[in-house]
Design a protein that fits this description.
Layout: H1 12-20, H2 23-33, H3 39-46, H4 50-62, E1 66-72, E2 77-82, H5 84-88, H6 90-104, E3 126-127, E4 134-135, H7 150-166
Antiparallel strand pairs: 1-2, 3-4
Helix pairs in contact: 2-4
């Protein structure tokens, strides 16, 4: 059975998952964003089968998250460098770190998010674009954007209806 493609889905979550929705891909991006670049570095860090690593790297290149650059002519060797879209994936990785630490690390944090300049711990935050103020995550919701189709509007209306049935005070989109 062939997997359904999400590349043309309207939802940005679905489109993003089409590019990185496999856990090896997310771990490769984690390592690439920490500075690993070469096949052998990824292989050593992840203990992944070479054929799987090749497939995942090719998928990330095709998806526009990594760029393949030659660093050796003989033999031909390549490194994998995050593209601007790959760099933007950093927030997803950082959100995973915070989420994983909060919910799945009873022994304590094996990774911490820190400010690179000060080494002080930081957290992923949502900022009100107009005000510049930090907004608590639990106050955040999604809403239809200007390009939303009728189908997207219907899906969001269903979610809004279900949310208001559970908690009438949560009726803000």
């Amino acid at each position: 059975m062939q997997r359904k493609s999400l590349v043309n889905a309207e939802c940005p979550v679905a489109r993003g998952l089409e590019r990185v929705g496999e856990w090896w891909s997310i771990l490769i991006m984690r390592d690439a964003l920490q500075g690993l670049r070469r096949f052998d570095e990824f292989s050593q860090s992840l203990d992944i089968a070479p054929n799987m690593l090749t497939r995942r790297l090719n998928t990330l290149v095709e998806g526009g998250l990594l760029e393949r650059r030659r660093y050796s002519e003989r033999p031909p060797r390549f490194e994998y460098v995050p593209t601007p879209a790959g760099e933007d994936f950093r927030i997803v990785i950082m959100a995973f770190v915070g989420w994983g630490n909060r919910h799945f690390a009873p022994e304590g944090e094996s990774l911490q998010m820190v400010d690179a300049a000060t080494a002080r711990p930081v957290a992923v935050a949502v900022v009100d674009v107009a005000q510049g103020a930090i907004v608590p995550m639990e106050q955040c919701r999604v809403r239809a954007g200007p390009a939303a189709s009728e189908g997207m509007l219907e899906r969001l209306a269903l979610i809004h209806t279900k949310r208001s049935e559970i908690d009438p005070s949560s009726c803000t989109a």
